[in-house]
């Protein structure tokens, strides 16, 4: 059987520690091609580059791995990989990360890491976004390598439902071993924003986005609970956003005579 | 009863025609405050500004309406409005648009218009993104004003389910009147990308993202069908991306002994 072809991307940029760890694990499983942003793209959500040009440059960064850096977003990188770099070949797996920082709960919406994975799913490819709940640029990934490999093997063997990408988060390195995996739902939590108001040397006002993460969710079947309790969380995420329950609510409650 | 407070944003920028139309309709319904990007932000998805500063400037653009332009993304604009501009007041409605161009089907993921609406929903506010399926900067919005008003009134009166924002698309101006509204699901369609490869005057390669929209959906209960048949489409969109069906599939199929 030929080795699987694995596309690697991320949002922290091609020189981050997290992508180096991910590439080293994926090399055990197959042929790896990297297309990743040339600079950090955190918080880019599912942004794509429209109305501006894109750059793509081959770089020797990883031993024995074809690697390209791009001026674009994580979603652009997956598009460039699929439709240009790997034009005549179809990846067996798309992996993104390992993100430096949590992408649990609502953070999935803002996450460049997950946008690369969801872009892969849109292309019909089994896709996984990996994040470590530790924001340090020099974070310790040693406790997650075996889990990254196990999860990737399961996806290569079993696939993922159509229209779904996996959002995998790992607890930070703690004194006890990771307890296992919880396949769970996205926690009901949000960022409680504050804006830090300042003045530049010319007296013009500017703001920094700041704020705290607030968890409203009391359940034990969600990703926040899993991470807090030292489990790996896997949330299968779909890109069909239709709220079917709301369709019937609108049809029942709205006054159609007024429309 | 006090007039409702209505927050208006968009992704085409505060000077676009679409936001002028939206502001003029909303002024009939309540007190309007505008916080919108100072330049076009199409394709920004749910990007937010992290690691860079944000600007916010009050501008007299719309008659009798408080308006602010920001250097940020549409999602940033709604955050700035909620947590800074309107800090002590809660909007009764958040509207975004009217976008110059379709945001049906999968485009919801890439849409800055819808990210502003989803950000509103995240803040617990009834929120609607409006888009006209006509990309022209001078598009004719005359046939949609009455529908924008009717839909906003329904939402002010009935609210929207928690965790849901409405994605409203209007057909382009045609020779026949709009037939009505279809509350429907997101069509199964995607962008089939191509990259247009060129060389700059210094001989360095660059790319333009290009491509076609491909509709795989044969159903008549989706937004693509509605627009093609001259109906207004309303897709209620949820920001909880959990694919519940996939949780049980994974728990059944994966080999947990290997994990």
Automatic annotation (TrEMBL), chains A, B:
<feature type="binding site">
    <location>
        <position position="99"/>
    </location>
    <ligand>
        <name>a divalent metal cation</name>
    </ligand>
</feature>
<keyword id="KW-0479">Metal-binding</keyword>
<dbReference type="Pfam" id="PF01975">
    <property type="entry name" value="SurE"/>
</dbReference>
<comment type="similarity">
    <text>Belongs to the SurE nucleotidase family.</text>
</comment>
<feature type="binding site">
    <location>
        <position position="12"/>
    </location>
    <ligand>
        <name>a divalent metal cation</name>
    </ligand>
</feature>
<dbReference type="GO" id="GO:0005737">
    <property type="term" value="C:cytoplasm"/>
</dbReference>
<dbReference type="InterPro" id="IPR002828">
    <property type="entry name" value="SurE-like_Pase/nucleotidase"/>
</dbReference>
<keyword id="KW-0378">Hydrolase</keyword>
<protein>
    <recommendedName>
        <fullName>5'-nucleotidase SurE</fullName>
        <ecNumber>3.1.3.5</ecNumber>
    </recommendedName>
</protein>
<feature type="domain" description="Survival protein SurE-like phosphatase/nucleotidase">
    <location>
        <begin position="6"/>
        <end position="193"/>
    </location>
</feature>
<dbReference type="GO" id="GO:0000166">
    <property type="term" value="F:nucleotide binding"/>
</dbReference>
<keyword id="KW-0963">Cytoplasm</keyword>
<dbReference type="InterPro" id="IPR030048">
    <property type="entry name" value="SurE"/>
</dbReference>
<feature type="binding site">
    <location>
        <position position="11"/>
    </location>
    <ligand>
        <name>a divalent metal cation</name>
    </ligand>
</feature>
<dbReference type="InterPro" id="IPR036523">
    <property type="entry name" value="SurE-like_sf"/>
</dbReference>
<dbReference type="GO" id="GO:0046872">
    <property type="term" value="F:metal ion binding"/>
</dbReference>
<keyword id="KW-0547">Nucleotide-binding</keyword>
<feature type="binding site">
    <location>
        <position position="42"/>
    </location>
    <ligand>
        <name>a divalent metal cation</name>
    </ligand>
</feature>
<dbReference type="GO" id="GO:0008253">
    <property type="term" value="F:5'-nucleotidase activity"/>
</dbReference>
<comment type="function">
    <text>Nucleotidase that shows phosphatase activity on nucleoside 5'-monophosphates.</text>
</comment>
């Amino acid at each position: 059987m030929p080795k699987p072809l694995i596309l690697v991307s991320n949002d922290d940029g091609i020189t981050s520690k997290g992508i180096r760890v991910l590439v080293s694990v994926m090399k055990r499983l197959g042929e790896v091609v990297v297309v990743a942003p040339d600079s950090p793209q955190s918080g880019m959500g599912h942004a794509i580059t429209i109305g501006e040009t894109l750059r793509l440059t081959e770089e020797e960064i990883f031993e024995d791995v074809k690697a390209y850096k791009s001026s674009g977003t994580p979603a652009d990188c997956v598009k460039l990989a699929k439709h240009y770099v790997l034009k005549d070949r179809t990846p067996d797996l798309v992996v993104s990360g390992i993100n430096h920082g949590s992408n649990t709960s609502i953070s999935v919406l803002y996450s460049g890491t997950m946008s690369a994975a969801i872009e892969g799913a849109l292309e019909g490819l089994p896709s996984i976004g990996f994040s470590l709940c530790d924001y340090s640029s020099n974070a310790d990934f040693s406790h997650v390598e075996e889990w990254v490999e196990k999860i990737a093997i399961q996806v290569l063997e079993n696939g993922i439902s159509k229209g779904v990408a996996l959002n995998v988060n790992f607890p930070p390195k703690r004194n006890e071993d990771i307890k296992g995996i919880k396949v769970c739902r996205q926690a009901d939590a949000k960022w409680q924003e504050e804006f830090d108001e300042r003045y530049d040397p010319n007296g013009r006002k500017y703001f920094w986005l700041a704020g705290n993460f607030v968890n409203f969710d009391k359940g034990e079947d969600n990703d926040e609970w899993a991470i807090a309790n030292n489990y790996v969380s896997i949330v299968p995420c779909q890109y069909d956003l239709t709220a079917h329950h709301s369709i019937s609510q609108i049809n029942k409650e709205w006054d159609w005579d007024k429309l």
